[in-house]
Amino acid sequence: MLDTILGALDTTSVFVFLLVFLIGYYWLTSPKNMPPGPMGLPLIGNLLQLRAAGSNQLELLKKWRQQYGDVFAIRLGSKNLVFISDYKILQETFVKNGDIFSGRPSNLYIINQIKKKTGTGVILSEGAIWKELRRVTLMTMRDFGVGKKSLEQRVLDEALAVVEVLEKGEGQPVLFKPLLSKFACNVICSIILGDRFDYDDKTFIELTKLVNLAVSQPLVFAPVNFLPITRFAPAGKKIIHDVVDSFVTIDNFLGTVLKEHEETYDPSEIRDFVDFYIKTRSDSDDAHLYDASNMRRVIIDLFAAGTETTATTLSWILLYFAAYPEVQTRCQQDIDKVVGQGRSATMDDRKNLPYIEAVITEIFRVVNIAPVAVPHVAVKEGKIRQYTVPAETIVIGNIREIHLDPVNWPEPDIFKPERFLDKDGNFCPPKENFMPFSIGPRACLGEVLARMETFLLFCTLVQSFTFVMPQGQKPDLQGQFGVTYSGKPQPFLAKRR
Ligand code: HEM
Fold it and tell me: Ligand 1 pocket, 449 CB below 6 A?
């Protein structure tokens, strides 16, 4: 009987049967009452469409948003992803329903590998561990000067170190990103390790390179996370190697540094973040939360989240100066008037430099350094407006779409700092539809530090230099999307004023 049936089947029948089976399986395993979205293929979902978009993935997200609305869903492998492109809906989801939608994906291959090899920290953890580590990290950063004068001075010293390097370069074209990464990384080092590195130090150069390599990869939609077979392809192997191995190497480096700290720890003299962390561990009933691997992971988080983002923001600012010389000139005039040349700008000067505040705010809006932020996960079934989203759904705040929405922002693609000034030239900070650091309980915990670094380095650099492209060249304002959206490497000049 079986022989007769098998004999009757030709290749076409087998193919049709398989196709119907896969489509049926795809349909049956798709959650019901999900937001609308583009049709995907069985097994892989919408992966091919994202792959085909290449470096234009953000444009594809824009197209899907236009087609399917402010809440749309896609499927990658067996994972469901929901994108939210409206500020109010995002507030309801990430803030009001923050207890449901503040998880992090635990079922993505690369993230699991990082966690397996280097432990859990703040960014990738969830639940009780995340809450406790986030609380202690914020408290420790505050104790070590974030938002205070002592840190301001350290940031200013670091800004002067950047000025020194540029002066030595004598107006030759410079690739700014590596230099600005050293600036941002050293600020973190001074909070965490109580010390800074010399910019020529080989270990330091390696550290900043690894941090950048780890977080400049197109991680969020990487096929290795969704389709196991791609982990064996050269591109898949490379991304796993670049990301996971970078984290492991940074982890090993920190292991050595932290061991020295543990050996010289004196509870009566808390020197830095690491000492404070050791003290918290010895004072706590939950000492296991603060074990050495968690401490290293928290520190790696601060390096990873605090170096690339800040350096990317600052590089975009300088590139926009080269592209918009009239904006740069106005910033220089304001600095000359308010601060002059005899001293550095301080955070107290902010209120007297409304145009500079407006330029920084507009850069955050128009460039979108973290265009899709960091993915969240629904820890249990939840509602996003009329839709039902099952547990484990990845939920993405589509920050770029909110910042470039013509309904919220007239002529959204145009760089126009004046949109944040009133008729008397006072700075008007945006009250809604603006969230470069995300919102809700997961929002960036380095925002105060990032804003301080951005403002102080911005002022220090325009006070001393004019940024221009080499003769005959135009700045390329198209970026590349990894975890962050960064400018393409393009050397330009810092001319002493
Ligand atoms: C301009 C610079 C920066 C930007 C644009 C930025 C943006 C963001 C965004 C969009 C998120 C994701 C929030 C979410 O999941 O909803 C985030 C998370 C985070 N950021 Fe930042 N960030 C910057 C600088 C920093 C700095 C300087 C630090 C630390 C020193 C830092 C530490 C973190 C940490 C630890 C998280 C994870 C928070 C959590 O999961 O609870 N960031 N940041």
Answer: yes
- Cα pseudo-dihedral 258, 260, 261, 265, rounded to 10: 140
Residue 374 CA, ligand 1 centroid: distance in Å: 9
Rounded-to-integer distance, Cα 258 and Cα 271, Å? 13
Atom index in ligand 1 nearest the CA of residue 376 equals 15
Which two structure tokens, joined as six digits, stand for 380? 């249990």
Backbone angles phi, psi at 41, to 5 degrees: -95, 155
Exposed, middle or buried: residue 346 (CB in 10 Å: 0-12, 13-18, 19+)? middle
11 part of a folded domain: no
CA–CA gap between residue 394 and residue 79 (Å, rounded): 8
Query: How many Å lie between the centroid of ligand 1 and the Cα of residue 30?
Result: 32
According to the model, what pLDDT value does residue 478 have?
A: 92
User: Look-up: residue for tokens 């190697």?
Assistant: 241
Give me the pLDDT at residue 134, please.
Answer: 92
pTM for the structure as a whole: 0.92
The pLDDT score that the predictor gives to residue 119 is 81
CA of 305 to the centre of ligand 1 (A): 6
Domain CATH code at residue 183: 1.10.630.10
The type of residue at 415 is: F
Say if 9 falls within a structural domain.
no
Parts of the chain with a pLDDT under 70: 1-30, 145-149, 287
Which tokens go with 290?
């603060």
Whether residue 18 lies inside any domain: the answer is no
Q: Which domain holds residue 146?
A: 31-496
Does the annotation place 189 within a ligand binding site? no
* CA–CA separation, 85 and 221 (whole Å): 17
What is each CA distance from 198 to 74, 202, 203, 371, in whole angstroms? 46, 9, 10, 32
Q: 37 is written with which tokens?
A: 């979205």
Number of domains comprising the chain:
1
> Which whole-number Å values give the CA distances from 357 to 295, 307, 432, in the listed order?
35, 21, 17
User: From atom 11 of ligand 1, which residue's Cα is the shortest distance away?
Assistant: 444
Q: Is residue 13 part of a domain?
A: no
Please tell me the distance from the alpha carbon of residue 272 to that of residue 275, in angstroms, as a whole number.
5
Residue 484: name the closest of 113, 141, 177 by CA: 177
**Residue 478 alpha carbon to ligand 1 centre in Å:** 23
Strand order in the sheet with 394-397: 71-76, 79-84, 394-397, 376-377
| Tokens at 383, concatenated | 């509602």
